[in-house]
Specification:
heterodimer, A: alpha/beta, 9-stranded mixed sheet, 13 helices, 11 strands, 17% strand, B: mainly beta, 3-stranded antiparallel sheet, globular, binds zinc ion, Thiolase family protein (chain A)
């Protein structure tokens, strides 16, 4: 199998602490600029080093021309730009694309920036014209009229099908939220830091059967940036570089109804490719950084990435301590469920936490040993999947 | 809302018939489209489905998933596996949410929502 040769590395990160309401000075393009400044500072790099740019869609400006807007505003020249459109997997997808471009010699140092801070409202109105329910959208025509709108219902459908095929208790799902909250309590940047137990999760209102409020991410605002560079340049980074030694991606559908299987998801193909490329065993992983829009997402991801067998995730989370003190550290930042999900930047938090742990800067929640991290991003309705294996050297 | 490609499906539901597409290689297709997702053939014909299927999964929306459905809660969103093969998104009706079971047999019923649009829902078979 071809693939990455592990010659591109993460050398710097920046992340705004997520907030429930936008209350920042940094909006829109200003947020991109501040994130770029902070991430380059973390790397010990300057603005002149940047020659690649990966980002999500701009919130406004008609959503178009993101590379033009950003290179102009940041004053950079990009040899390779990409607008990554993978929903929750956008962060992981951006880092994977940066690594590919750097290994191919298309650019040497890429900024990956994702943010959700709203731009000031245009007093004249306007804004994005595309809506999912627009004419010619299959979801708009064949899902929305039945009330199948948003994300919650889709993950609930998956949870019910999974329970039907393999058995799963509400308590097993709740354990995921509880352990992640324990991690968040050790993370000053996390939005949700009050202790919760399994009863708290199960006593929170059911939003869509069987999912309770505390099993569902709350939308937040924030942003994150990651600097990826070549092996040669990585040697002069401030902190230990985290080489991207494996990557895998798989997309099969948009609407959950057409997911080839609700219980063996496209995650599997992405993760298998990443592990094979990296030449790393599951048991070599020191930290699992797994996308967690819902508790059920984590359970399926644990199985399909191969950390446990099919149908065993419920038992796995019962038998393992998933906190930073535990035998299977997972989402030590608190996961999006407790750290907060800042839109597309939510998926980037799994990468920023990986880099903090790999460079020994995770504070109270720092793992004793962290050299190899598995990151997984999931976008859409269990739709767009990106896996990364990172190695600190 | 229908496009020129999907119009025959909605013409069908208006006549209380559930229509699927079949490609020249025999793949059964839902939702309606121009090319078969099994082989990308663009030679597709319309065939009438049995209207029977099995519940693949479901959820009960306790809160509206959009303001449009404020008055419908609680309602049962379903993914139905049609006997012809494809899955479709729908709603379950004429059933107590607590009595819904994955794997239950279903049959299509039609709800004339407007003059143009009739939605296919499903209910437990043989009721
Ligand atoms: Zn075909």
């Amino acid at each position: 199998m071809g693939g990455l040769r592990g010659e591109a590395a993460i050398v710097g990160i920046a992340e705004f602490a997520p907030v429930r309401r936008p209350d920042r000075t940094w909006m829109g393009l200003e947020a991109y600029a501040e994130l770029a400044r902070l991430a380059l500072d973390d790397a010990g790099f300057s603005h002149d080093d940047v020659d690649g740019l990966m980002t999500g869609h701009l919130a406004d400006s008609g959503g178009l021309f993101a590379p033009g807007h950003l290179t102009e505003y940041l004053g950079i020249a990009s040899h390779f730009s990409e607008v990554v459109d993978l929903g929750g997997a956008t962060g992981a997808g951006a880092v994977l694309r940066a690594a590919i471009a750097i290994e191919m010699g298309l650019c040497e140092t890429a900024l990956c920036i994702v943010h959700t801070l709203p731009r000031p409202k245009n007093p004249k109105g306007g804004g994005p014209t595309f809506r999912m329910g627009a004419w010619g959208s299959p979801m708009g025509e064949f899902d929305y009229p039945f009330g199948a709108i948003g994300q919650n219902y889709a993950y609930a459908l998956i949870a019910n099908r999974y329970a039907y095929e393999f058995g799963l208790t509400d308590e097993q799902r709740a354990k995921v939220a509880v352990d992640q909250r324990k991690n968040a309590m050790a993370n000053p940047k996390a939005v949700f830091r009050d202790p919760i137990d399994i009863d708290d999760v199960l006593n929170s209102p059911v939003i869509v059967d069987p999912l309770h409020m505390l099993e569902i991410v709350m939308p937040c605002f924030g942003g994150a940036a990651v600097v990826v560079t070549s092996k040669e340049k990585a040697k002069r980074a401030k902190h230990r570089p985290a080489y991207i030694i494996g990557g895998g991606e798989n997309t099969t559908h948009l609407s959950v109804t057409y997911d080839p299987s609700f219980t063996e998801t496209p995650i599997k193909a992405a993760a298998d490719r990443a592990f094979e490329m990296a030449g790393v065993k599951r048991s070599d992983i020191d930290l699992a950084s797994l996308y967690d829009c819902y508790t059920i997402t984590v359970l399926l991801t644990l199985e399909d990435t191969g950390f446990c067998g099919k149908g065993e995730a419920g038992k796995f989370v019962e038998e393992h301590d998933l906190t930073y003190r535990g035998d299977f550290p997972m989402n030590t930042h608190g996961g999006q469920l407790s750290f907060g999900q800042a839109g597309m930047a939510g998926g980037m938090s799994h990468i920023t936490e990986a880099y903090l742990q790999l460079t020994g800067r995770a504070g109270e929640r720092q793992l004793r040993r962290c050299d190899t991290v598995f990151v997984h991003g999931n976008g859409g309705l269990m739709s767009e999947q990106v896996s990364l294996v990172l190695r600190g050297e | 809302m229908p496009t020129p490609i999907t119009q025959p499906f909605w013409d069908g539901t208006r006549q209380h018939r559930l229509l699927l597409q079949r490609c020249e290689a025999g793949h059964m297709i839902f939702y309606p489209r121009s090319h078969c997702p099994g082989c990308l053939s663009n030679r597709l014909e319309w065939v009438e489905a049995s209207g029977k299927g099995t519940l693949y999964s479901y959820t009960v929306a306790r809160r509206p998933t959009s303001p449009d459905f404020e008055h419908d809660v609680p309602f049962v969103i379903a993914v139905v596996e049609l006997d012809e093969g494809p899955r479709m998104t729908s709603r379950l009706v004429e059933v107590d949410p607590d009595a819904v079971r994955i794997g239950m047999r279903l049959e299509v019923v039609f709800d004339d929502v407007t003059e143009e649009i009739t939605l296919p829902y499903f209910r437990p078979a043989g009721t």
